[in-house]
Amino acid sequence: MSEVDLDELRAELREFAQPEKKAGRTQREERVIAGFEEIQQFFDREGHAPRHGEEHDIFERLYAIRLDRLRALEECRTLLMAFDNQGLLTSVEPSYTAPIEDMDEDALVAELDGAAGTADITNLRHIRSSAEKRAAEEIANRTACEDFATFKALFDQVKRDLAAGTREARPFQKKQAEIKEGELFIVGGQVAYVANVGEAFVTQYDRRDSRLRVIYDNGTESNVLSRSLQRALYRDETGRRITDPSAGPLFADEAETDDLASGTIYVLRSKSDNPIVVQNRDVLHKIGVTGGDVARRIANAKIDPTFLMADVEIVATYVLYNINRTKLENLIHRVFAPAQLDVGIKDRFGRPVVPREWFLVPLFIVDEVVERIKDGTITQYTYDPTSARLVEQ
């Protein structure tokens, strides 16, 4: 056998060699790699691959869907194998069951759009699993909560209350009343606190709605419509309303180091030219409780039937600590029920409205009620409008 010329052999084999891949990658490849790196970061942080299931955090469930898609697409596996030092692509069989026609690289890249260079996973847009699609919608508009430190103590306390049984997580019912400030829910596997309810407005379908500021226990927040949150809670099989604590002080006289401000009792006086209001202006007051800024609460008073369709002035305010605002407001209204104003007005659409938070009561009586709330004796009294004083029941 003649001796092989190695130089000639290399020359012949070079014709069959695969063309060298350019060092640079396409934007599509960069997005796929960036999306996979987010999953790797999750693995390094948590010590396991992301998992499916309602019992897991929404972010983990979304990562699990992404990983299943990457495993199912040969093009993605080929691209990512060199980076897979944790064995994420081969360790577990894919559990995602989307139709095979959906499992293409174009769809995946569309979901990963924006992943390169960021840890944001809220841009997933083509998830076919209905449960996960709903979950993605819930976090679609969330942003980081800049003042989360203000609310962290509340979330910690709520979790302790749930563990101790002083609070309960009850299924959310479709027919439940409108969402109010200070309420707590579980939606998408996270505790959600309604920090503020904006001014009510009427939709194009003639339904009342309002914009909410909702804080989540993972440090994010959203600015959602009340009806949207109601729908999300109802269609989430694990959606829950967290009850108020069954024990604890109603009102703290002073703020302690760890106390969380809960809101403000406000007393307002109307500037309406309604004859009944004019005749009783000095003793006619709106008494309510808010978790937001009182000035902002009354900003649109002249177009809100709750405020008698007129501007108002703030007469007095009392700051609350560690209190359930809804219970307190109900208590105050019960005490002053005998002096509730009964007058009908029309809203800006000409519909009749009967406001329910206006009372014919002098300011010094409101002061006395607040003091009796502080010392815990208010439950023993009611207001007598004839003598303009509190009387024992």
Could you give the distance between the termini?
119 Å
- Overall 3D geometry? elongated
Strand content: 15-25%
Order of helices and strands: HHHHHHEHEEEEEEEHEEHEHEHEEEHEE
Q: How would you classify the helix and strand content by structural class?
A: alpha+beta
- Level of helix content? 25-40%
How would you write the strand order of the largest sheet? 1-8-7-4-3-9-2
Uncertain segments: 15-22, 93-105, 113-140, 246-253
Q: How many domains make up the 3D coordinates?
A: 3
Round the Cα radius of gyration to an integer and report it: 30 Å
Count of strand segments = 17
Mean pLDDT: 75
What is the count of DSSP helices, taking H or I runs of 4+ residues?
A: 12
In terms of quaternary structure, what is this? single chain
Largest sheet: 7 strands, antiparallel
